[in-house]
């Protein structure tokens, strides 16, 4: 009869809208170089989406805007075009498109691309974020929470852990800033983050704990690299957290009602 | 905790014109009786075309369970009996006659549990009960583990059950006490927390009041059942509308089962909304004749969310939705359509709206993923057996799935039922 609006493409567009504070600040500070970098990433992802549409009838998604923004903002600098395109292609194809596109992927394609670039080309310098850009992550997370495109438990857990880390000075400011930006761009992806409330809280706490651990023990790593590695591991553990949360939920109901 | 739960759910808004003030009773000139939605149901017609029947007279029975009868919603002549292949009864159409009379029943038999059950089955009350799991009517000897009486309905433009009960409180309590005798467990009365319900005496049995919020799907039977007494393969749960309980009270008092019910007509295809009292099987074309807007439109029995295109009002429908027929969207190029529109079902992206569309009662995304993957065991663990299509209608609407979710749920329930019956 009548259809609602929360389709995959609506969610992708609303996620882009939520990330606008971050994107606008980044373009403001980065200038034309940032715009060129973003356009290149968009072009590469669009080509791969076209390839998969033609070869596997897999409809393209506007989520490429979110992925492109994350990769353009966080990828190491000083890479050749070939290296950059190779990293983007690996992340988008292996992280998303071979699973059937956005909505069916297990890990965020941006996280996979950045991890590939970071581990594949360790000599390339990672970007350094200005303080205002890191602050822009907070309204972005707030918008995502209010609009409902970012998991509320995860965002609240992330904000709580961030506040604790900042209060007690558990990591340096650059690591904290990078962790905040990575959290909003990569960890809060609604598809690859935990789908249960308990899972969201645990994933947020795990991400924070990994950032603190890597920030203290991983000598020589750049702040974005630390944050991306924490995002990758917490994202991989999200299905496990969900499974545990669901088992607890089912167990509670069985104990109460005798069945679920 | 109750405070937080009262705010869960959504308030979907659909366009509909302002409603007229007058509340009239309307018996349509034609009425159609169709079997309740149950895939295994075979009915045997007990009347012939041209025969005259009283209102409430038995006209058909279930082939496998002949104690369960369907009755004529209006007094009149049997105009047409339609059958599907396999002599499966599809529809009985009645032409109204003023002098047809009303079928009366002996209520003395209702003193015993067996007699009450027999009375409900011969008087045509049985199709008003829905069982879970799997949906449809309960078998004639089925004893429910619990009964849910729905005195709230949160679907958009639903008629207010409390309005239907005004002046019928005594009949409601009488019917409630009687129905509670059929259950081996508690009877839950789900009511809108912003209204008041008639006080239930302790002698009526194990009756529990469940206050519900006003957002959908808090007043959805499946969600209430899932939260308070989940249905299981060996623990069927029934749900009945509160107005039907008042009708049961009247049946026990007078021997006649009232047929009229409060129905709301709404939708963007109308010039004016309407609230009226009519009977099951009412002709939707006649009910909406004077109030539809110019232009092509379609009639749906049910709400904006779960309505089905139909000519007749169903056994459990209390809403009619009239929608304008929109011109079909221009067809895209065949190659583009093949590339973009073949990947189905579309993936569901977890959002707050999706969680709210199931009332926060069960993990929305794991359930939808289990439905999409055909994982019966996971879905049963998550509470599938308490749900029917109408309970997922809001989630389906929210995702813009175009009915995919409800079809997946029905396919899975049918599969589980086949395995269970084997």
From TrEMBL, chain A:
Source organism: Jannaschia seohaensis
Protein name as it appears in the record: Na+-transporting NADH:ubiquinone oxidoreductase subunit B
UniProt keyword terms in alphabetical order: Flavoprotein, FMN, Membrane, Phosphoprotein, Translocase, Transmembrane, Transmembrane helix, Transport, Ubiquinone
Pfam families registered for this protein in UniProt: NQR2_RnfD_RnfE
Keyword Chaperone attached: no
GO biological process: one example: transmembrane transport
Spans through the membrane: 12-29, 35-55, 62-86, 106-126, 133-157, 163-188, 200-220
Transmembrane helix found in the keyword field: yes
Domain of life of the organism encoding this protein: Bacteria
GO cellular component terms attached to this protein's record: plasma membrane
Source organism phylogeny: Bacteria, Pseudomonadati, Pseudomonadota, Alphaproteobacteria, Rhodobacterales
UniProtKB/TrEMBL annotation, chain B:
One of the protein's GO biological processes: sodium ion transport
Domain NqrA N-terminal barrel-sandwich hybrid: 40-93
Occurrences of domain NqrA second alpha/beta (ranges): 114-257
Keywords: Ubiquinone
Residue spans crossing the bilayer: none
Presence of keyword Thylakoid: no
Superkingdom field: Bacteria
GO MF, any single term: oxidoreductase activity, acting on NAD(P)H, quinone or similar compound as acceptor
InterPro entries cross-referenced by the UniProt entry: NqrA, NQRA_2nd, NQRA_N
Name of protein: Na+-transporting NADH:ubiquinone oxidoreductase subunit A
Organism in which the protein naturally occurs: Jannaschia seohaensis
């Amino acid at each position: 009869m009548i259809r609602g609006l929360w389709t995959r493409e609506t969610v992708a567009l609303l996620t882009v809208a939520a990330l606008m504070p971050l994107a606008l600040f980044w373009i403001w500070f980065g200038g034309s170089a940032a715009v060129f970098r973003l356009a290149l990433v968009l072009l590469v992802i669009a080509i791969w989406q076209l390839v998969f549409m033609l070869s596997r009838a897999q409809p393209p998604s506007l989520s490429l805007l979110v992925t492109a923004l994350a990769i353009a903002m966080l990828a190491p600098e000083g890479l050749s075009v070939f290296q950059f395109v190779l990293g983007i292609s690996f992340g988008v194809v292996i992280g998303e498109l071979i699973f059937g596109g956005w909505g069916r992927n297990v890990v965020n394609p941006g996280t996979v691309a950045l991890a590939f670039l970071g581990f594949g080309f360790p000599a390339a310098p990672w970007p350094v974020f200005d303080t205002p850009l890191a602050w822009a992550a907070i309204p972005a997370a707030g918008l995502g929470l209010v609009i409902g495109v970012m998991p509320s438990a995860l965002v609240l857990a992330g904000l709580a852990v961030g506040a604790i880390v900042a209060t007690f000075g558990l990591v340096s400011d650059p690591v904290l800033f990078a962790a905040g930006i990575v959290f909003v761009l990569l960890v809060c992806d609604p598809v690859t983050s935990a789908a249960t409330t308990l899972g969201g809280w645990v994933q947020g706490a795990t991400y924070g704990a990994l950032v603190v651990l890597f920030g203290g023990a991983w000598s020589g790593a750049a702040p974005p690299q630390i944050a991306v590695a924490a995002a990758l591991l917490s994202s991989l553990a999200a299905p496990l957290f969900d499974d545990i949360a669901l088992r607890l939920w089912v167990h509670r109901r069985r104990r109460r009602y005798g069945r679920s | 905790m109750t405070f937080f739960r009262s705010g869960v759910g959504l308030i979907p808004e659909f366009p509909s014109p302002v409603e007229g003030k007058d509340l009239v009773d309307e018996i349509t000139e034609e009425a159609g009786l169709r079997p309740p939605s149950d895939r295994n149901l075979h009915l045997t017609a007990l009347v012939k075309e041209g025969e005259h029947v009283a209102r409430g007279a038995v006209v058909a029975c279930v082939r496998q369970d002949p104690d369960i009868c369907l009755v004529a919603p209006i007094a009149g002549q049997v105009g047409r009996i339609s059958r599907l292949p396999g002599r499966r009864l599809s529809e009985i159409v009645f032409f109204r006659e003023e002098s047809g009379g009303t079928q009366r029943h002996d209520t003395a038999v209702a003193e015993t549990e067996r007699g009450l059950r027999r009375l409900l089955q011969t008087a045509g009350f049985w199709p008003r009960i829905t069982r879970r799991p799997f949906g449809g009517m309960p078998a004639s000897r089925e004893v429910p583990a619990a009964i849910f009486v729905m005195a709230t309905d949160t679907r958009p433009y639903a008629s207010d059950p409390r309005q239907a009960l005004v002046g019928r409180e005594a009949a409601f309590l009488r019917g409630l006490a009687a129905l509670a005798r059929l259950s081996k467990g508690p009877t839950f009365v789900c009511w809108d927390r912003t209204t008041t319900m008639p006080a239930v005496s302790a002698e009526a049995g194990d009756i529990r009041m469940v206050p519900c919020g006003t957002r959908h799907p808090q007043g959805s039977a499946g969600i209430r059942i899932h939260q308070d007494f989940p249905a299981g393969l060996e623990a069927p749960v029934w749900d009945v509308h509160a107005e039907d309980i008042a009708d049961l009270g009247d049946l026990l008092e007078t021997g006649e089962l009232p047929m009229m019910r409060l129905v709301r007509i709404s939708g963007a295809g109308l010039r004016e909304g309407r609230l009226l009292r009519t009977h099951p099987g009412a002709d939707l074309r006649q009910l909406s004749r004077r109030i539809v807007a110019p232009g092509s439109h379609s009639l749906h029995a049910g709400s904006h969310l779960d309505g089905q295109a139909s000519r007749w009002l169903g056994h459990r429908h209390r809403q009619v939705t009239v929608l304008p027929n929109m011109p079909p969207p221009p067809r895209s190029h065949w190659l583009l359509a093949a590339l973009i529109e073949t990947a189905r079902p579309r993936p569901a992206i977890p959002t707050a709206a999706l969680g709210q569309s199931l009332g926060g009662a069960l993990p929305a995304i794991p359930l939808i993923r289990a439905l999409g993957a055909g994982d019966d065991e996971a879905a049963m663990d998550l509470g599938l057996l308490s749900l029917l299509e109408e309970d997922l209608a809001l989630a389906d609407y929210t995702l813009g799935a175009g009915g995919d979710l409800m079809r997946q749920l029905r396919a899975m329930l049918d599969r589980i039922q086949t395995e269970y019956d084997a």
